[in-house]
Amino acid sequence: MHMILIGFMGCGKTTIAHILGKQLNKKVIDLDAVIPELAGQTIPEIFASEGEAAFREYEFQALKQTLGEDVIIATGGGVVTYGKSYSTLIELKNRPVYFLNAPFEKLYKRIQQDENRPLGNQDIEKVRDLYQSRLGKYKALSDLEVSTLQTVEETASEIIAHMN
Ligand code: S3P
To answer: What separation in Å is there between the alpha carbon of 7 and the centre of ligand 1?
Structure first.
């Protein structure tokens, strides 16, 4: 049975997924690593050459091929913005979906000037609007919201405690 981590850029999905993977002895799949394999290009290259809509379709394909496997899935922060991905996630029967969150300013600090994140590497107001526009969706999708203001180990323990 899969386990899904969602949340904005910089919330720690990939790091926490790997800690959980070790502790639960499960394979970790990072959708941001699957997408370049499907597209034959890096994420910034997809945005530059094919645009965001094409990126979202690759992201959906990556999600679809991964769901149902007994793995921990680290999604990209924008997985909630595309109708097909969002409805797939909201319709999951036995989700556990965990929303990792922190105050926007903290997240922005972690992601600014990261060239690998085309949507994070913009003016703070634009990125804040993006965060605000997604927040309700992360909350609607998740079974549990977990703060990542604590250490990554504490965050992972909180998720494991919720599973048991
Ligand atoms: C995106 C987040 C990124 C990556 C892409 C788009 C977004 O993933 O999928 O750059 O729209 O928020 P992370 O959340 O892992 O940075």
So the answer is: 9
Average pLDDT value over all residues in the chain: 95
Q: Is 43 in the pocket of ligand 1 (CB under 6 A)?
A: yes
Per-residue pLDDT, 1: 78
Residue 163: both structure tokens together: 């599973």
Report which residue type is found at 33.
A
**Cβ 76 under 6 angstroms from ligand 1:** yes
pTM over the 0.90 mark? yes
Max CA separation in the chain (angstroms): 45
Residue 147's H or E segment, with its range, is strand 144-147
CB of 97 closer than 6 angstroms to any ligand 1 atom: no
119 lines ligand 1 (CB under 6 A): yes
Q: Which domains does the chain have, with CATH numbers?
A: 3-159 (3.40.50.300)
**What is residue 145's predicted lDDT score, i.e. its pLDDT?**
98
Phi, psi of 90, deg, nearest 5: -75, -25
Q: What is the Å distance from ligand 1's center to 116 Cα? A: 9
Amino acid at 159: I
The alpha-carbon radius of gyration of the chain (Å, integer) is 15
ipTM over 0.90: yes
